[in-house]
Amino acid sequence: MLLEIYEDMADDDTQPSIRKKCGPYISSITSRSLNLVIRGIVLFLIGVFLALVLNLLQIQRNVTLFPPDVITSIFSSAWWVPLCCGTASAVIGLLYPCMDRHLGEPHKFKREWSSVMRCVAVFVGINHASAKVDFANNIQLSLTLAALSIGLWWTFDRSRSGFGLGVGIAFLATLVTQLLVYNGVYQYTSPDFLYVRSWLPCIFFAGGITMGNIGRQLAMYECKVIAEKSHQD
């Protein structure tokens, strides 16, 4: 009789522990999904803001020209440009940390927000140079921006995955831009590389590295929060 009572008490003790294990597991999945959505929204908003500011520089310098009927936003930019850049920024920012985990190479070089902000400042400076600095010819400008873009990667990234994704992003973004220009959506003044400017891939490369660093930093912050919660539990 005493043995049966002891077994019943043991069963009662194990059932709550099972429920406790299930609870945090489900909540961790929910929190990770929510954090992924939040990171995507933050990256989208950052991409929209940078697109408005940087495209304004290009338009003021008459580097890019939009038809009058599509100039609708407050920063004299076509409405779809910030949305496309924001979406691309979200995808890039989420892709970089996923690629790091897939390759088993966690990025640990200069993982602090001050470094990320300096990376953003250098990227804005590279874009500003493409619009404001006058060079003797486009070849000199393209080589200078290429050196600056690679220097940005070496200073703030130095990962093989970051360089590879940056090159892939530059290729795809340049191809999409060429298709848009070819179909008359907008145009570049003085194109010298298949309807676009030859330095454009350098801008896309630097932009990919920048958004990748922001995405990595946000992902690292998420991991810290999850680790603290699990430690408290």
TrEMBL record:
**GO molecular function of the protein, one example?**
lipid binding
Q: How does it sit in the membrane?
A: Multi-pass membrane protein
Q: Name one Pfam family in it.
A: INSIG
For the keyword Magnesium, the answer is no
Location in the cell:
Endoplasmic reticulum membrane
Protein origin, superkingdom:
Eukaryota
Q: Name one GO cellular component term.
A: SREBP-SCAP-Insig complex
* Regions crossing the membrane: 36-57, 77-96, 139-156, 163-182, 194-214
Can you supply a Gene Ontology BP term from the record? Answer: cholesterol biosynthetic process
Alphabetized UniProt keyword annotations: Cholesterol metabolism, Endoplasmic reticulum, Lipid metabolism, Lipid-binding, Membrane, Steroid metabolism, Sterol metabolism, Transmembrane, Transmembrane helix
**Mainly resides where?**
endoplasmic reticulum
Q: Which InterPro entries match?
A: INSIG_fam
Q: Which family does the record claim for this protein?
A: Belongs to the INSIG family.
- Functional summary from the UniProt entry: Mediates feedback control of cholesterol synthesis.
What protein is this chain from?
Answer: Insulin-induced gene protein
Its source organism is: Eublepharis macularius (Leopard gecko)
